[in-house]
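Input structure tokens:
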């Protein structure tokens, strides 16, 4: 994700107080987006990610409606920004507790380097600030000029923000505008500084990043749990964790195969693929190159269900070096045969489903 060319195409803002402070103030039309206002919101949004950018993925265990609404906005031919954003505002209102601050929810349709994106921003509302709703053509909307003056001054940072961008090149539908993107040399391709990955969701072909200015960054929690739970997202794993998970879950799948010859062939392919000098691993490509056709889909689905990306991700073999150096054949009788991967070609595996024959060819050096 390259935020160097980000356009705010459409924008809507809702007032979301704590439930105890009153109902959600829903806008009934999109906010008028004059060129100056669009550029201003673009600048404030991008600024949030200059020094605070964390790669995220949708969490399949979450019950949040945000992932479904975001994916719909990314894929609809004519995105219903009003309806989708109202649903997000109601969800945020329902999730807020006494420990969280009320404020504003901004949902924007973006264009990022030629692809459609969705921006979600949560901004605190100052105590005592007057009502922000105004009437345009008989319908309520948020006064964006007032928001600019009250909340988005140069001294105020957007507190929480997330950007989701489709990996498929598809521009966001826009109302007539002469808005142009602000050149920003400080931003380049979005590779997270900690994970080294691009944050592409294996299930959706989507890139996503989040920033939260209210939380001090720690090794265990870079982003407030509240905002992440609202989004229905989780922090993307680091390359070492993803590589380890890929190997472990691949082994789990392979070990369920009853045919010993196939099991050995898949295992050899796994070792060779992970040990390659390439900087990335691609589960789908591995399956295509090493597994029989009738096993490929179930293998990829197994890894996806376990949270392993099925598209390319950065590789780190630090935790799987011992696996790459030797293969252990464990028999039910208690016999274990350890074979260095460099000598794997001297071992042949055969037999039927319930009877495995392991043949070692070579000159016997000694026994002990």
């Amino acid at each position: 994700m390259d935020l160097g060319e980000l356009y705010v195409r459409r924008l809507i803002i809702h007032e979301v107080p704590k439930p105890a402070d009153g109902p959600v103030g829903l806008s009934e039309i999109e906010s008028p987006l004059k060129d100056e206002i669009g550029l201003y919101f673009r600048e404030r949004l991008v600024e949030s990610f200059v020094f605070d950018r964390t790669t995220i993925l949708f969490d399949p265990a979450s019950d949040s409606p945000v992932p479904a609404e975001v994916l719909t906005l990314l894929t609809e031919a004519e995105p219903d920004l009003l309806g989708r954003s109202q649903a997000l505002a109601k969800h945020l209102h329902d999730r807020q507790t006494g420990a969280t601050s009320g404020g504003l929810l901004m949902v924007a349709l973006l264009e990022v380097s030629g692809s459609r994106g969705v921006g979600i921003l949560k901004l605190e509302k100052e105590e005592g600030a007057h009502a922000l709703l105004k009437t345009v053509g008989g319908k309520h909307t948020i006064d964006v000029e007032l928001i600019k003056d009250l909340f988005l001054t140069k001294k105020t940072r957007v507190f929480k923000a997330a950007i989701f961008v489709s990996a498929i090149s598809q521009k966001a539908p826009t109302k007539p505008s002469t808005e142009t993107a602000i050149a920003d040399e400080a931003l380049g391709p979005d590779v997270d500084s900690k994970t080294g990955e691009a944050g592409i969701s294996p299930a959706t072909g989507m890139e996503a990043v989040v920033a939260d200015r209210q939380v001090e960054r720690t090794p265990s929690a870079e982003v407030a749990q509240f905002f992440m739970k609202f989004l229905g997202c989780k922090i993307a794993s680091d390359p070492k964790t993803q590589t380890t998970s890929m190997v472990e879950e691949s082994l789990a799948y392979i070990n369920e195969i009853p045919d010993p010859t196939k099991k050995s062939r898949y295992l050899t392919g796994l070792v060779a693929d992970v040990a390659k000098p390439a900087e990335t691993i691609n589960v789908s490509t591995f399956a295509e190159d090493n597994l029989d056709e009738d096993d490929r889909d179930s293998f990829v689905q197994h890894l996806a269900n376990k949270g392993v990306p099925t598209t390319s991700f950065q590789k780190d073999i630090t935790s799987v070096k011992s696996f790459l150096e030797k293969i252990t054949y464990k028999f039910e009788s208690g016999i274990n045969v350890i074979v260095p991967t460099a000598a794997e070609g001297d071992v042949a595996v055969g037999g039927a489903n319930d009877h495995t024959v392991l043949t070692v060819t070579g000159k016997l050096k000694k026994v002990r």
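Confidence is low (pLDDT under 50) at residues 176-203, 215-224. The first strand starts at residue 6 and ends at 16.
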